[in-house]
Amino acid sequence: MPLRKIWILAEPECFFLPFLVDLLAKRQVVAGIIEIHFKRTFMSRLRSLFRMLEFLGLGAFSSVIIDYLWVRIKDISCAEDVYSLRKVARKHGLALHRCLGFNDQILEGIFRDQINDAPVLVQVKRLVPAFLTDNYLLINKHCSILPRYAGLYPIFWTMLAKEAEQGVTIHRMDRAYDNGPILAQAKIHDQGTFFDNYAMLYELTADLLTTLVRQNGYSLSPLGLNAVMPEHYVGMPTVADRKMFKSKGLRFGSPLLSLKSRKQKQ
User: Which CATH architecture best describes the domain 6-251?
Assistant: First the structure.
């Protein structure tokens, strides 16, 4: 039986997602990439930036913006640096499709004619419509051991609670956020900064997904999720949460430095 490679359906991102997809592509388990774009107004983008500023604080926010600008330049100017899905596709000779929203006919045609029953890793910041979750094998990566810390920024909340371990869950998607039968889970010891944990969990995600793809079948574990209990759900951290985070000696760090550290160990 031929290997059922995984498809990637994701919004553009320049830090950890290209790192994950690059790792998967090196292991020859990626069939193709669909880069999905959503229309957003100027005010919507401005509100997102303001929420991020409140979450990170001025120092960490400035560091992220500088890192973002630097990797955008590096992605364009340096052949060896990979900081976009476009660059990952070019590096590994993968099919790259672009679509505008979930109702784009291009997306419909790709699912119908190319994906069929292949697994699709979905990484978007909005609810996926039922016509996709009900008819295709969509899977999600969530950076916690579900059902604990379902919701937003689980790494932050895990660190704030002084948990000794971080974790990642791969689960089949259904009509609710962070819900569905669990396919795989794994834990690691806390790695230090917020972005250090992000980089390590994305690397761990690559290991879990590679194992699942090569198993040729996606047998569900007995830890199926039917619903996320409200007491396990976490929301957007507030300014008070961020101040408490820093008062405990916890740090956000730099996404670029965290990624470079993981890449050097590959």
Answer: 3-Layer(aba) Sandwich (3.40)
